[in-house]
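Let's practice the habit of predicting before peeking. Look at the sequence and jot down your guess about where helices and strands might fall. Then scroll down.
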Amino acid sequence: MRLDLKRSAIALMLTGFAFSAEAQNYPVKPIRVVIPFAPGAGIDPVGRMIGSRMSEELGQPVIVDNRAGANGVIGSEFVAKSPPDGYNLLYTTSSTLVTGTFLMKQMPFDVFKDFSHIAIIYETFQAIAVHPGVPAKTTTELIDLLKRNPGKFSYASSGIGSAFHLWGELFQQVAGVTISHVPYKGIAPAFGDLISGRVPISFFSYNQILPMAEAGKMRFISILDTKRYPGAPGIPAISEEVSGFQKMPSWISMSGPAGMPRPLVTRLHGSVMKAANAAEVRAELEKGGAQVVGSNTEQFVARMKADIEVTAKVVKLAGIQPE
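Done guessing? Here is the structure:
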């Protein structure tokens, strides 16, 4: 028995040395980074910048592979079922790993068991914005207006179950107000009605609203966060006027298949965060209303669990059903 235990200990130690050596030699061939959304929009441009920087640091090509469909599920499933050798990675959003778990009856993967989570790279900031014709300039004034006119105002989203739909539902729940939800097939058609004032309220990302706000066609009310966005410190956080606010997830991350050796995960965490902190990448993120985070594996998993708990409450109260 003692001899068997000794042999097992030696085997584990040798395996650890092998994994460490593998991480030091990694990579020896091109790395595929799957972005499970269409090229050229959303998280894709920054993902390509990060991939290019990682390629310089790792000494191998980092090839972006766009596998769009089902709110990121198709590309995510591909990575989940890949070998855990670090050559197939997933660059995706919380809308896939958190929100998506409530929108599909049969997810083809388990977000905790089927991935090695490497890093939450950065997070975006959402904002409440209104058409200039809305007579409210602060969150408190907007809530008072909505309470005096229950159901008479509406807000736009890019579709039922979208992040922007859930932000609107969260606001109604914490503010104790009722706003009619108008879902659109994408962001572009929603913006047309926002600009015209037909649908006067939105919960889109700060960077999506910014051009319209600068043109005087929309007005920021507050940032949907517990802290102000450093890129726009003059806009108050909603938590300054509404107590009990819990932020919905709005982050972008990198993961690999389950079973990746820890030294390899650590190596990739260092590489992706070095890329995200490069001057030109940070500048692009700040321009886009985002902020570098850098969560490691344990922080990533803890954040995901907390975000799933918050999202579950919003989805339940909103009556959103999985399809």
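How did you do? The domain at 127-240 is CATH 3.40.190.10 (D-Maltodextrin-Binding Protein; domain 2).
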